[in-house]
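quick one before i forget lol
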Amino acid sequence: MSFINYNSKEINCKIVYFGPATSGKTTNLQYIFNQTHPDGRGRMISLQTQSEHTLFFDFLPLALGTLRGFNVRFHLYTVPGQSYYDASRKLILRGVDGIVFVCDSNVTRMEANLESYSALVTNLEEQGYEIDKIPIVFQYNKRDLPNVCPLSEIEDYRLTRS
């Protein structure tokens, strides 16, 4: 649930981009950063390895204006896609208000998508969340590249909630 601070008149929402390694989570935040007016965004923080994989997380704060006198702020995070960073992913998911699951559309990445989605469900359940009670958007990324899996087949993998 969003954090509402009545003293400072702020509404803060935490959105986490989750998905397998190299699916495009960091690229999403970089695009949003580049498309947002400097007055409406904070500094983007990205901790990456030498091979440009996310090491711990990416973070982008956005100010979206006011709603009934409250300043609305979104805090966008990515998690590392590699499974050996599971502890980091769990930490970043704490207090999540919504999730963007970034699915790699390459036909060879379907198993990685399934493993990542399964890890998401497990990580949320371990923290007392129910996947069906959290807003989640499925982004089918890299649709413009060769060797993509048809959307009907991706959906047959049951990445979406039933």
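fyi The longest helix spans residues 110-126.
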